[in-house]
Write a structure and sequence with these properties.
There is one protein chain. By secondary structure, the protein is of the alpha/beta class. About 45% of the residues lie in helices and about 10% in strands. The chain has one domain: Rossmann fold (3-Layer(aba) Sandwich). A hairpin with a 2-residue loop joins β1 and β2. The radius of gyration is 18 Å and the shape is globular. The N and C termini lie far apart (about 45 Å). The structure holds 3'-phosphate-adenosine-5'-phosphate sulfate. The site of 3'-phosphate-adenosine-5'-phosphate sulfate has 20 residues, from α4, α8 and α14.
Length: about 300
């Protein structure tokens, strides 16, 4: 993908942005997805990755962009220049995303790239196109603790003018608990990949571990992908992918998406990048209700999230 492709992508968004609007959700096998995605669902399901393609799977706002940058840099031996040639969403296409023409879909972008490609998805395991498993593609899954994930999604749904209106905070917490947001239930999502991780080539990471010890997590990703870079390169990757640097980098902070789509004056894409921001949002009553519900929804698994409380 060249700088020219990145420019024509931005141009296409500019042209189409007048017709972009907050979109309804339509269930696919019980999972609510944005209507534009559902329109091309058959092509998404039929997607055949190359065995060398790498998939980054996350529930929205769990640390996808961060992981995309880390892996892209690992694949380029820490070469910041190579990774600054185009915005994240061009270098590492979003498998299922679809918008009105002339904006290219994720599938359109992928067709133009040669494997190994770095592919992003928010699809839950149950909706993952079977080609990824049949071809044994490596999957890096990132999970973030439920309350911080919810807070981050709330701000994002306010600023992303194509997602359904989030409504007030109180109602949003309940929508999250009921799995009514785009891409469905956080609980089913984190459990779906967790339960498959022993059987498949899945590296299961936590946002909180990335924050606590980014160096160790970058090394784990490197080993999982059968890559080998020097200690100096690892240090460089950790530095380039710090929150501060990614927030300032126009190739990673989504500033290439026009405000008619991502209205970053409402909330920046690189918002806070912290663990525990939920404490600034949940009332004591909401914490009680949320945690009682969490116990029920997560009772069948023991996923070691660091910071539920
Ligand atoms: S998306 O739209 O689903 O792809 O969003 P995603 O990238 O998964 O999540 C965005 C949140 O991740 C934070 N972020 C980071 N945190 C720490 N360090 C780095 N480098 C980093 N990059 C992105 C981003 O700020 C969003 O979290 P919040 O809590 O809203 O700040």
């Amino acid at each position: 993908m060249t700088e020219k492709d990145a420019l024509s992508f931005s141009q296409a968004i500019m042209e189409a942005s007048a017709s972009l609007t907050r979109l309804p959700l339509i269930p696919v096998k019980g999972v609510p997805l944005i209507s534009y995605i559902v329109e091309i669902w058959d092509s998404i399901w039929a997607f055949r990755p190359d065995p060398s393609d790498i998939l980054i799977a996350t529930y929205p706002k769990a640390g996808t962009t961060w992981t995309q940058e880390i892996i892209d840099l690992l694949l380029h031996n820490g070469d910041a220049v190579a990774c600054k040639q185009a915005p994240t969403h061009i270098r590492s296409p979003f498998l299922e995303i679809n918008s009105p023409p002339p904006i290219p879909s994720g599938l359109d972008l992928l067709k133009k790239m040669k494997p190994p490609r770095l592919i992003k998805t928010h699809l839950p395991f149950a909706l993952l196109p079977p080609g990824f498993l049949e071809n044994n593609c490596k999957i890096v899954y990132v999970a973030r603790n439920a309350k911080d994930n919810l807070v981050s999604y709330f701000y994002f749904d306010n600023m992303n003018q194509c997602h359904p209106e989030p409504g007030p905070w109180e109602g949003y917490v309940h929508k999250f608990m009921r799995g009514e947001l785009s891409w469905g239930s956080w609980y089913d999502h984190v459990k779906g990949y967790w339960l498959e991780k022993e059987k498949r080539d899945i590296l299961y990471l936590f946002y909180e571990d990335l924050k606590a010890n980014p160096r160790r997590e970058v090394e784990r990703i490197m080993r999982f992908l059968d890559l080998s870079v020097s200690d100096e390169v690892i240090d460089k990757i950790v530095e380039i992918t710090s929150f501060k640097n990614m927030k300032e980098n126009p190739m990673t902070n989504y500033s290439s998406i026009p405000p008619s789509v991502f209205n970053q004056s409402v909330s920046p894409f690189m918002r806070k990048g912290e663990v525990g921001d939920w404490k600034n949002h949940f009332t004591p009553e909401q914490i009680k209700i949320f945690e009682e519900d969490y116990e029920k929804q997560m009772k069948d698994v023991n996923i070691p999230f660091r910071s539920l409380i």
